[in-house]
Amino acid sequence: MNGYPDVQKTIRAIADKSRMEILTALIDGKFHTVSELAKKAKIKSHTATYHLKILCELNWVSFYRQGRNVYYHLCSEDVANLLEHLLNINPIKNKPSLNQNREYQNLKLGRSCYEHLAGKIGISFFNYL
Question: What is the CA radius of gyration of the chain?
Fold first, then answer.
């Protein structure tokens, strides 16, 4: 390895609200189209494409084409783990709408991320074992 890791580039990548929304949507380990990610981040499709290009350059996100659609997903479990840790240590902000709050509560309750069960259900299951 030549040189040092560019931590500032990583911080700049996650400092943007739209990119963080896209990464949070991708944490489920599934493939998503640009329009799905744009809708979740509440941005236009061409803006989502711009953010996804930056994330692809960092090798955090990869894609494949199938016909007219392009599907994106996180490249590695390390990126998902980084995002999970960041979400756990950050202060909680209030959700302005009932639907967003319901979505957050469902995500907090239980989700699968790559090859493990996370959230309260995952913790309860682990403690039970």
Answer: 16
- Cα separations (Å) of 85 from 81, 82, 118? 6, 5, 12
Burial of 53 (0-12, 13-18, 19+ CB in 10 A): exposed
pTM exceeds 0.85, yes or no: no
The model's pLDDT over 68-93, given as tens digits with 9 standing for 90+, comes to 889 999 998 888 888 888 877 777 66
pLDDT tens across 39-68, in order? 999 999 999 999 999 999 999 999 999 988
Q: Checking DSSP bridges between strand 69-74 and strand 111-113, what pairing results, if any?
A: unpaired
- 82 SS3 class: helix
Residue 63 · residue 31 · CB < 8 Å = no
